[in-house]
UniProtKB/TrEMBL annotation:
<dbReference type="GO" id="GO:0004616">
    <property type="term" value="F:phosphogluconate dehydrogenase (decarboxylating) activity"/>
</dbReference>
<dbReference type="Pfam" id="PF03446">
    <property type="entry name" value="NAD_binding_2"/>
</dbReference>
<dbReference type="GO" id="GO:0019521">
    <property type="term" value="P:D-gluconate metabolic process"/>
</dbReference>
<protein>
    <recommendedName>
        <fullName>6-phosphogluconate dehydrogenase, decarboxylating</fullName>
        <ecNumber>1.1.1.44</ecNumber>
    </recommendedName>
</protein>
<feature type="domain" description="6-phosphogluconate dehydrogenase C-terminal">
    <location>
        <begin position="349"/>
        <end position="637"/>
    </location>
</feature>
<keyword id="KW-0418">Kinase</keyword>
<dbReference type="InterPro" id="IPR008927">
    <property type="entry name" value="6-PGluconate_DH-like_C_sf"/>
</dbReference>
<comment type="pathway">
    <text>Carbohydrate acid metabolism.</text>
</comment>
<keyword id="KW-0808">Transferase</keyword>
<keyword id="KW-0521">NADP</keyword>
<dbReference type="GO" id="GO:0006098">
    <property type="term" value="P:pentose-phosphate shunt"/>
</dbReference>
<dbReference type="InterPro" id="IPR013328">
    <property type="entry name" value="6PGD_dom2"/>
</dbReference>
<dbReference type="InterPro" id="IPR006115">
    <property type="entry name" value="6PGDH_NADP-bd"/>
</dbReference>
<keyword id="KW-0067">ATP-binding</keyword>
<dbReference type="InterPro" id="IPR006113">
    <property type="entry name" value="6PGDH_Gnd/GntZ"/>
</dbReference>
<dbReference type="Pfam" id="PF01202">
    <property type="entry name" value="SKI"/>
</dbReference>
<keyword id="KW-0560">Oxidoreductase</keyword>
Length: 638
């Protein structure tokens, strides 16, 4: 161990600081000191009388210990046992360079520690003071955290493993495109990393070792194709990130890992897993006292490398310990805060990522429809459309998707635009459809997102579409139009649709939070979507600000949004009418219009549906002229 290092064992009284401290000092062959021995007599008398110390009492005591730490640091180092419950106490004790101080927090439940205190003899600390200690405790953020419900030998081995400079801070399994990019990101933040990739003869051979060789500018990475050696290379409690394909591969990797893991280890699933599968995995691993974080990651290959948006959900204990890695590699918002936050319990992280992808599906389809009507109705070239999109960006509609669409339209292959050579058959990985299914289960309207999924499905039947076009021989029409007026209306329609789409996505998040009791912070979710992710935009920044103190308010009801919608909704209706009349399919633009007109109508057509349901199925109905809790049935034939 480094000469002069001070190891401070801290936690509430009864957590075993003295016992663990003495044992660790013996293992490291350095002196042990107990902070209690430095209390002035007045403090001891006060505690013996059953009264807790206040900050005024503690100040001279902490300053005295801080002076001693300077002396120990110039010698061979030391182990100190000290309660250090508050961050400001710990800051006072850091009287030397932080690199020479190792904080080790002993974590235990109130009941466990209370039982230990009851068994103590001849000690001035009483059980009645334990409550105040737990109330004062400010848990660690980046310190070594050790659970105390195990033998002293296991505790010491776990501490030594964590302190061992030959071990890695975390491990990553799966070196596909995203896995490699995240690994490089972690290395750029100076974390010591172990990576693992399976070995498959003639298919996946020495993937991890080759990747390590490519990182010639760092010596903080080791690679494995042996899973046990990979796990053994990690400091305990371990943090292991999985970057493997969602579905069965995740379960297979977890099953392979389990024989080598220990209690309190943490697994982070960084793939696009279904939130219900994440919930099941969390429960299964919790039974083995292993933590699980279902973590959505958005940003693609570039985001993974330079800083994605990260949405972890699951064990709060695991996030408090392992979240530092995720926060470090995430993108930063305008205030330089990490675009990573603890989302909530269970499968909430992957649910939020699923909704993110649903919003993304609709935004992509909106852009596709906008391009299509500009190209084939307004007769604009890809270059002209790119210029139009850039003007919208400059007008305040800046978004990542609008920017990349503007860029891709300029790509040529020879004398042709590459966009004209791409088959109009859209692929998908299922997350958009998952959003639709979740909305159906929760009873939330999701038209823009659902229609974008359906549009991809219809695009997939290319050969049948060709045959239908030959049979029907419909053609699109383009009348003489006023360019300036049309493009202005289209810009307004684009903005209105995007607002409606985001409103719909956040409605799904709000409902899931209430039904599943996740207590989602919608403003914070929007904030971490302002950079790094695919749907980052100026609009997202506005949403984050609007929701900051109004978590329960629907987006379309904010005065600022109402003003914008009133200025743009007529243009949206005009564009949809014009496009449909001219023979163009505008699925998301149409869905947004229909949703908004229904959402803003005090009287809808649903009374006819209720009458129909009662007519053929005696499902009953409510009346506008009767109390809301009364239901009626009518014999409609008489």
């Amino acid at each position: 161990m480094n000469k002069g290092v001070i190891y401070i064992i801290y936690g509430v009284s009864g957590s075993g600081k003295t016992t663990v401290g003495r044992a660790l000092a013996g293992e490291l062959n350095i002196p042990f000191f107990d902070a209690d021995d430095f209390h002035p007599e007045a403090n001891i008398q006060k505690m013996s009388a059953g009264s807790p110390l206040n900050d005024i009492d503690r100040e001279p005591w902490l300053q005295k210990i801080a002076t001693e730490i300077i002396n120990w640091n110039t010698d061979k180092g030391a182990v100190l046992a000290c309660s250090a419950l508050k961050k400001k106490y710990r800051k006072t004790l850091e009287s030397i360079d932080k690199q020479y101080v190792k904080w080790i927090f002993l974590d235990g439940s109130f009941d466990l520690i209370a039982s230990r205190l009851e068994a103590r003899e001849n000690h001035f600390f009483k059980k009645t003071m334990l409550t105040s200690q737990f109330e004062s405790l400010e848990p660690p953020e980046n310190d070594i955290l050790i659970k105390i419900d195990k033998s002293i030998d296991k505790i010491i081995n776990e501490i030594k493993s964590t302190l061992d400079t030959d071990t890695s801070e975390l491990g990553l399994i799966g070196l596909g495109v995203m896995g490699k990019s995240l690994a490089k990101n972690l290395l750029s933040k100076d974390f010591k990393l172990s990576v693992y990739n399976r070995h498959v003869d003639q298919i996946e051979v020495d993937v991890a070792k080759k990747f390590v060789l490519e990182q010639s500018d760092t010596d903080t990475i080791v690679g494995f194709d042996d899973l046990k050696k990979f796990v053994d290379s990690l400091a305990q409690p371990r943090t292991i990130m999985l970057m493997v394909n969602a579905g069965k591969p995740v379960d297979l990797v977890i099953d392979e890992l389990l024989p080598y893991l220990s209690e309190e280890d943490c697994i982070i699933d960084g793939g696009n897993s279904h939130y219900k599968a994440t919930l099941e995995r969390s429960k299964r691993l919790a039974e083995k006292r292993i933590h699980f974080l279902g973590t959505g990651i958005s940003g693609g290959e570039e985001g993974a490398l330079k800083g994605p948006s990260i949405m972890p959900g699951g064990s709060k204990t695991a996030y408090n310990r392992s979240g530092k890695y995720l926060e470090a590699i995430a993108a930063k918002d305008k205030k330089k805060n990490s675009c990573c936050t603890y989302i909530g319990p269970e499968g909430s992280g992957h649910f939020v990522k699923m909704v993110h992808n649903g919003i993304e599906y609709a935004e992509m389809q909106l852009l596709a429809e906008t391009y299509h009507i500009l190209r084939f109705y307004a007769g604009k070239t890809p270059v002209q459309i790119s210029n139009i999109f850039n003007s919208w960006i400059n007008n305040g509609l800046k978004s990542y998707l609008l920017e990349i669409t503007s860029d891709l339209l300029l790509k040529t292959e020879g004398k042709d635009f590459l966009i004209d050579k791409i088959l109009d058959k859209a692929g998908q990985k299922g997350t958009g459809g998952w959003s639709t299914n979740a909305a159906l289960e929760l009873g939330v309207a999701l038209p823009t997102i659902s229609e974008s999924v359906m549009a991809r499905n219809v695009s997939g039947i290319k050969s049948e579409r060709i045959k239908a076009s030959e049979i029907y021989q419909f053609s699109t029409s383009s009348n003489s139009i006023d360019d300036t007026s049309f493009i202005s209306d289209l810009e307004k329609a684009f903005l209105a649709t995007s607002i409606i789409n985001h409103h719909i996505g956040f409605k799904l998040l709000k409902e899931s939070s209430e039904v599943y009791k996740w207590q989602l912070n919608l403003s914070e979710i929007a904030r971490i979507w302002t950079n790094g992710c695919i749907i980052r935009s100026n609009l997202m920044e506005q949403i984050s600000s609007l929701l900051l103190d109004n978590n329960d308010t629907s987006l379309l009801l904010f005065p600022e949004i109402v003003k914008t919608m009133k200025s743009n909704i007529n243009s949206l209706s005009e564009i949809v009418g014009t496009g449909l009349t001219a023979g163009f399919s505008l699925t998301v633009l149409s869905a947004a219009t229909n949703y908004f007109l229904t959402y803003t109508s005090a009287q809808s057509s649903a009374n006819i549906i209720q009458a129909q349901r009662d007519y053929f199925g005696a499902h009953t109905y409510q009346r506008v002229d009767k109390p809301i809790d009364e239901y009626f049935h009518t014999n409609w034939k008489n």
